[in-house]
């Protein structure tokens, strides 16, 4: 997610104030290179698996089992809701079976269908963009499912976009619906597509471009009012730049959140929600009780933000941006990187929120401004979801070994009001990956119908889907054992019968069906 291919990640870092030093004094380049240093054993196992020998595949499967046995000791937090309490008796779905088509390994009795693939012509005459990322599923007409899907593309690579390698299909859309035209040469190639899926027939019935001209649309989140918040994980100014062998023309500032109504059958008005901040956005989640939007940031010194709208459900009316802080411990560091400091799983911390003025910043320094006001640091905040009155968040390189963390935020009953001071929200570390863990770099996540989190991996080797209980125990759900691509955008259909997930580098969305309900008790 933030893990763009290596050279794009380096560009992403270099163009955002160069090297930052973390609290342990490590240069940022260590963050870029650390997968190749800290994950050597795992990388070796992945390399061996590509040789396709039974012995090597067995070695990798043993590594997964060792993770499942050891990660349980990394967290002792008790269940915190009725839904999560149900998960204690859930034993998973059994052993994963090799996929003869080499796409995704699933448990017995489960199957998938590819419902979106990069390069296919869509119903609007445009092409399915590449690099499928965050997404959400909404109820449609006559039992259909509407899936809004992000595409994490840069204007630098036009062949990944919807308009063709030379932007030759750009004339097929109204340019007023294109956020950044790029002088007609390098329009933004990110944005979103919307898929209409028939769950009975298990097939796509329509697909079209629904947000155009934005860039690096990474994650985001659904709203209770039927829209998708698409987040740009990029910070760029207007102008022409030479980026990795190509000239990119931009006419607009980038680094915003955009709203896309799931039920619309055309392009959304590309209006940036500027009061929600300009930074490298990752995910968003909405509290349906208050309309407050929470947002993560994909930087190694990132903040957890919340946006309190003036009018709940009307984000364009503006509002107030804040960052989370730990009460009585300003500038608290959750990353567990520094020696002598450790945030242990299960320790609840009372929270406060600091105001962030002028959120539409000219410099990429919103996180530093928040830090100076006492905000709490996370290590690349990525996945974020709301479930049963609580929020769950991943920090992809958090933890002593920088292998990932999962947090739980319990909002105040008076969230966003002055009474919150007397009854604050609380934050706890739910789980942290160790050297024996196979769950490397937890990313997108969603709450399952049976009360367990389903987490996407974003690591340097093959990535899977892992079920995570709130007591820290895990089980495998799916495995991308055939490419190094991250999995992204995990979400369930509104009725809980279909799980959707993206295989980013292969540019595809798959719909997974099977006996989900029979395993929910």
Secondary-structure map:
Elements: H1 6-14, H2 28-38, H3 40-49, H4 54-70, H5 82-86, E1 96-97, E2 106-107, E3 111-117, E4 132-139, E5 145-151, E6 192-198, E7 203-211, E8 217-222, E9 227-232, E10 239-243, E11 246-250, E12 257-261, E13 281-286, E14 293-297, E15 305-309, E16 319-326, E17 349-355, H6 366-372, E18 381-387, E19 390-395, E20 405-410, E21 426-432, E22 442-447, E23 453-457, E24 463-468, E25 474-480, E26 487-492, E27 498-503, E28 508-513
Antiparallel strand pairs: 1-2, 3-28, 4-5, 5-6, 6-7, 8-9, 9-12, 10-11, 13-14, 14-15, 15-16, 16-17, 17-21, 18-19, 19-20, 20-21, 22-23, 23-24, 24-25, 26-27, 27-28
Protein described:
- The chain has 521 residues and is mainly β.
- Helix content is 11%, strand content 32%.
- It has six helices and 28 strands.
- It has helices spanning 6-14, 28-38, 40-49, 54-70, 82-86, 366-372; strands at 96-97, 106-107, 111-117, 132-139, 145-151, 192-198, 203-211, 217-222, 227-232, 239-243, 246-250, 257-261, 281-286, 293-297, 305-309, 319-326, 349-355, 381-387, 390-395, 405-410, 426-432, 442-447, 453-457, 463-468, 474-480, 487-492, 498-503, 508-513.
- It has a nine-stranded antiparallel beta sheet, with no helix packed on it. A four-stranded antiparallel beta sheet has the order 3-28-27-26, with no helix packed on it.
- A hairpin with a 4-residue loop joins strand 8 and strand 9 (227-232).
- Helix 3 packs antiparallel against helix 4.
- The longest helix has 17 residues, at 54-70.
- Residues 2-90 have low confidence and may be disordered.
């Amino acid at each position: 997610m933030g893990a763009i291919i290596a050279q794009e990640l380096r560009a992403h870092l270099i163009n955002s104030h160069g090297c930052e030093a973390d609290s342990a004094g490590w240069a940022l380049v260590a963050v870029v290179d650390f997968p190749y240093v800290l994950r050597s054993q795992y990388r070796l196992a992945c390399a061996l698996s590509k040789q396709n020998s039974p012995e090597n595949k067995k070695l990798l499967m043993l590594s997964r089992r060792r993770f499942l046995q050891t990660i349980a000791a990394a967290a002792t937090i008790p269940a915190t809701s009725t839904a999560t309490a149900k998960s204690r008796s859930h034993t998973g779905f059994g052993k994963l079976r090799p996929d003869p088509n080499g796409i995704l390994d699933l448990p017995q009795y489960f199957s998938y269908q590819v419902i979106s693939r990069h390069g296919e012509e869509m119903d609007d005459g445009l092409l399915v963009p590449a690099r499928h990322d965050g997404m959400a599923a909404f109820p449609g007409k006559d039992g259909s499912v509407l899936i809004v899907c992000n595409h994490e593309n840069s204007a630098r690579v036009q062949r990944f976009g919807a308009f063709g390698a030379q932007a030759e299909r750009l004339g097929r859309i109204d340019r007023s619906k294109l956020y950044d035209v790029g002088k007609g040469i390098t329009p933004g190639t990110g944005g979103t597509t919307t898929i209409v899926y028939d769950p009975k027939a298990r097939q796509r019935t329509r697909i079209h471009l629904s947000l155009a001209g934005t860039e690096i649309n990474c994650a985001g989140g659904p709203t209770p009012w039927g829209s998708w918040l698409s987040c740009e994980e990029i910070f760029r100014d207007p102008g022409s730049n030479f980026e990795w062998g190509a000239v990119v023309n931009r006419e607009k500032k980038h680094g915003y959140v955009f709203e896309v109504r799931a039920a619309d059958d055309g392009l959304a008005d590309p209006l940036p929600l500027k009061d929600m901040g300009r930074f490298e956005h990752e995910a968003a989640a909405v509290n349906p009780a208050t309309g407050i939007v929470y947002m993560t940031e994909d930087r190694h010194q990132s903040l957890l933000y919340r946006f309190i709208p003036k009018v709940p459900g009307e984000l364009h009316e503006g509002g107030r941006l804040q960052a989370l802080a730990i009460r009585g411990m300003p500038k608290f560091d959750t990353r567990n990187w520094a020696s002598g400091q450790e945030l242990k799983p299960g320790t609840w911390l009372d929270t406060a929120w600091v105001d962030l003025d002028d959120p539409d910043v000219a410099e990429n320094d919103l996180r530093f401004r928040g830090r100076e006001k006492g905000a709490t640091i996370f290590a690349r905040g990525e996945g974020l979801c709301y479930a049963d009155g609580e929020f769950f968040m991943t920090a992809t390189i958090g933890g002593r070994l920088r292998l990932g963390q999962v947090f739980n935020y319990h909002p105040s009953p008076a969230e966003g009001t002055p009474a919150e001071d007397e009854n604050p929200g609380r934050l706890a570390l739910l789980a942290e990956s160790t050297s024996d863990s196979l769950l490397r770099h937890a990313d997108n996540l969603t709450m399952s119908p049976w009360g367990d989190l389903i987490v996407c991996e974003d690591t340097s080797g093959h990535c899977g889907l892992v079920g995570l209980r709130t007591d820290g125990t895990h089980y495998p759900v799916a495995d991308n054992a055939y490419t190094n691509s991250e999995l992204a955008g995990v979400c369930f259909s509104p009725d809980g019968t279909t799980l959707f997930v993206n295989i980013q580098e292969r540019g595809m969305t798959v719909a997974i069906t099977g006996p989900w309900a029979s395993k929910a008790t």
